[in-house]
Design brief:
Number of strands: 8
Structural class: alpha/beta
Strand content: 15-25%
Largest sheet: 6 strands, mixed
Distance between the termini: 29 Å
Shape: globular
Length: 334
């Protein structure tokens, strides 16, 4: 029996076979109203920047996704906040990178949402969807991995990230001349809200905080209205405005040894999936912290665990079937 394993499926199965079963066997996902705001914002940012890479307008697509969310019982206030945050982040990202070129850029887009499949042996198909493929000024091809995050992880994680390693392996197996992965980070943590005293200076603690240019502009206007010297305004702007902290790119080359380690892990996970299929038992990997805080199936899983069987009532309460409409979340022509 054929096994098709995506990079997301590999991540789920490696963490917990029960999680893999819920998502990839039973095809269950959280109801839209229960999806975390950070996840929805990440989807919206990803879609908007995909359209920007393709030279298409993106603002209307955010509004389409917002309407879909409201139609599917997502809190309208949350949706309104996400529309503002996403629009501002995407606008600032595009403005920042329009004025900055880190080596080996500038880059030109070759493709977006590029799908690759590789069959290392009969009956096993590994697949990935690459965010974007871009060429640098020297003609080298890069896998572009966009990540929206509250904190940028350190270089160790970029060096071992299994999802991008699998994308790299599968792309090379398909004849793509990729040389590495570009991690393209968008930090979602809001910029500092700086305060101006009646004397027309920043509060002392705010002088050392960072913010984005858009959040500095009204502060600059207030400082000027309260008579702050232009030299002071320029000095504070140079000190606190730091859009580069929100938008960072890191090129990473992946050695062959890393590829072999990743493929060995994939092989072990595939064996575990095959064994679970044969025995009709997808074992849970219970970590109270991970299950309670990060697993989308945590509540359903624990209820079924206590019952000792599947429960259609609990499945209906906590999840919904993964349809094309649910997957697209209002994205047109997805």
């Amino acid at each position: 029996m054929e096994i098709r394993l995506s990079t997301s499926g590999f991540n789920d199965a490696a963490r917990c076979l029960k999680r893999y079963e819920y998502r990839w066997v039973d095809r269950l996902v959280l109801k839209p109203k229960d999806v975390r705001a950070a996840m929805r914002r990440g989807t919206w940012i990803h879609r908007a920047l995909q359209l920007a890479d393709e030279g298409q307008p993106w603002q209307g697509q955010i509004l389409n996704m917002a309407r879909w969310a409201i139609d599917n019982e997502v809190d309208p206030e949350q949706v309104e906040t996400l529309v503002t945050e996403t629009t501002e982040l995407v606008t600032d990202y595009l403005a920042y990178w329009a004025g900055h070129t880190d080596p080996p850029g500038p880059y030109t887009s070759e493709a977006t949402e590029y799908q690759v499949c590789w069959e290392p042996k009969p009956g096993i198909v590994l697949s990935s969807t690459i965010d974007c493929l871009k060429r640098d000024r020297n003609g080298r091809l890069w896998i572009w991995e966009r990540k929206s995050t509250e904190r940028i992880p350190d270089s160790d994680w970029r060096g071992v990230d299994p999802q991008t390693m699998l994308q790299y392996i599968e792309a090379r197996a398909n004849g793509l001349d990729v040389v590495g992965i570009m991690f393209d980070y968008i930090v979602t943590e809001p910029g500092a809200k700086l305060r101006v005293t009646q004397k027309g200076v920043l509060y002392k603690g705010d002088e050392e905080r960072s913010t984005r240019l858009r959040h500095w502009q009204p502060v600059e206007a207030e400082l000027r209205a309260k008579g702050a010297p232009e030299a002071y305004i320029r000095d504070m702007a140079s000190r606190v405005v730091n859009d580069a902290a929100w938008f960072q790119r890191y090129p990473v080359f992946r050695p062959d040894e890393n590829a072999r380690e990743t493929l060995a892990d994939v092989a072990a996970v595939l064996r575990a999936i095959n064994d679970a299929r044969a025995k009709q038992r997808y074992a849970r990997s219970i970590s109270i912290l991970d299950c309670r805080m990060f697993c989308p199936y945590g509540k359903l899983c624990m209820h079924e665990y206590m019952l000792g069987r599947k429960s259609e009532a609990y499945r209906e309460e906590y999840t919904t079937a993964l349809t094309d409409e649910v997957y697209s979340e209002g994205r047109a022509a997805w």
